[in-house]
TrEMBL record:
CDD domains referenced in this protein's UniProt entry, alphabetically: GST_C_8, GST_N_GTT1_like
Domain GST C-terminal: 90-217
Protein name: Glutathione S-transferase family protein
Organism: Variovorax robiniae
Pfam families membership: GST_C_2, GST_N
Chain ranges of the GST N-terminal domain: 8-87
């Protein structure tokens, strides 16, 4: 059965592949699973039909037969558990790869989301100028720690895994901030992820959605 995921009908990132459907698309491409996409507008996302699948009225979702999932981490983990290729067979290595998925989502992504919120929604606040460097420094702490752990390895724990997929998509959200350039080994790590053919296919698919929507106006 071909799963159906949801994505923005008109992504605010203008086709840069930073919305969270990108992680799901990439995971599906890595394991060679075909998928359908249902595009939703901001209005549709908040309506009852979509909220029945996603209680918080967001994307991405994942539907496959009787199963309906939300949360990009849970979706990617489900895909990785159903198919070979994104998690090692060895139980300990598998647990470590899943740990990196959680680290990406619950330790590295939060300060990156804070920066996005500050840039997008807090510019008019009187405390914006004081807050911005604090948020950027919090990200630097995490990037420094991550760079130390990565060292000169290609991936976080042996072969490429769902942990790397998640971490790369989280770090990509920093693209416009310039912060990644301060950590060349992490910039190279992201570039290695982006060079994977499965990433490219996923990126092209979401870009096509954006370009088509732009043509329609
Ligand atoms: N923790 C959720 C976050 C989902 C999320 O923030 N989705 C964004 C797009 S990347 C969204 O739907 N934003 C529109 C909104 O919240 O109204 C996940 O990882 O799936």
């Amino acid at each position: 059965m071909i799963p159906t995921i949801t994505a923005f009908a008109q992504s605010p990132d203008r086709g840069k592949g930073q919305a969270r459907d990108m992680r799901v698309r990439w995971a599906l491409e890595e394991v060679g699973q075909a998928y359908d996409v249902r595009l939703v507008s901001f209005t549709e996302m908040k309506q009852a039909a979509h909220r029945a699948v996603h209680p918080f009225g967001q994307i991405p979702t994942y539907e496959e037969g009787d199963l309906a999932l939300f949360e990009s981490g849970a979706i990617v983990l489900h895909i990785a558990q159903q198919h070979a290729g994104l998690l090692p067979d060895d139980p300990n290595a598998r647990a470590r790869a899943i740990t990196w998925m959680f680290a990406a989502l619950s330790t590295v992504e939060p300060p990156i989301v804070d920066l996005g919120v500050a840039l997008l929604l807090e510019r008019d606040q009187p405390w914006y100028a004081q807050r911005l460097p604090i948020v950027r420094d919090r990200i630097r702490v995490r990037l420094g720690e991550l760079a130390t752990r990565l060292g000169d390895a290609d991936w976080l724990d042996g072969a490429f895994s769902a942990g790397d997929l998640m971490m790369v998509t989280v770090l990509r959200r920093l693209n416009i901030s310039g912060l990644l350039d301060e950590y060349p080994s992490l910039a190279a790590y992201v570039a290695r992820g982006e060079a994977r053919p499965a990433f490219q296919r996923a990126f092209d698919a979401q870009l096509t959605v954006f370009n088509d929507a732009s043509k329609r106006g």
